[in-house]
């Protein structure tokens, strides 16, 4: 992946707001409870990907806010693992859309957004 594409992807995160996409599978109350609890464990891109595969149909309300918070924290504080996201997203465009959708109005725009912006501008991998 070239540097320009990586920078564009990172800038896309910063500038994109949430987009509602229709769900095809209903989330049971039990799944919603498990999904909400699982958002606390989203500390790596791999865990976000596993969550996406298991619970993306439960992406609503407090579950969605938990995902947004986790995505923002990863982009703000774990930029050194951004390549992991790029690799997962390059193999699954729906996962990429899922993550981008969670860079939204619920993240901490005074704390996380400036860090994300700085990371995207100054710390993109050389390739």
Order of helix and strand elements from N to C terminus? HHHHHHH
Q: Can you summarize the main beta sheet?
A: none
Number of strands: 0
How far the N terminus sits from the C terminus, by CA atoms, comes to 6 Å
Q: What is the C-alpha radius of gyration, as a whole number of Å? A: 14 Å
Shape: globular
Low-pLDDT ranges: 14-23
What fraction strand? under 5%
Structural class: mainly alpha
Summed up, the helix count is 7
Task: State the helicity in percent bands.
Answer: 55-70%
**What's the pLDDT, averaged over the residues?**
85
General description of the model:
It is a single chain. With 127 residues, this protein is mostly helical. 64% of the residues lie in helices and 0% in strands. The protein contains seven helices and no strands. Helix 1 packs antiparallel against helix 7 (112-122) and helix 5 packs across helix 6 (93-101). The longest helix is centred in the middle third of the chain and has 17 residues, at 61-77. The protein is globular, with a radius of gyration of 14 Å. The model is unreliable at 14-23 (pLDDT under 50).
């Amino acid at each position: 992946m070239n540097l320009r594409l990586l920078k564009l992807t990172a800038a896309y995160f910063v500038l994109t707001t949430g987009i509602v996409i229709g769900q095809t599978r209903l989330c049971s109350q039990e799944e919603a409870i498990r999904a909400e609890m699982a958002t606390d464990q989203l500390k790596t891109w791999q865990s976000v990907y596993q969550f996406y595969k298991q619970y993306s149909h439960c992406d609503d309300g407090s579950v969605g806010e938990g995902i947004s918070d986790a995505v923002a924290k990863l982009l703000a504080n774990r930029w050194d693992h951004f390549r992991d996201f790029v690799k997962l997203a390059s193999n699954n465009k729906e996962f990429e859309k899922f993550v981008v959708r969670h860079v939204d109005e619920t993240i901490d725009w005074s704390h996380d957004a400036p860090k994300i912006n700085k990371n995207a501008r100054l710390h993109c991998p050389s390739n």
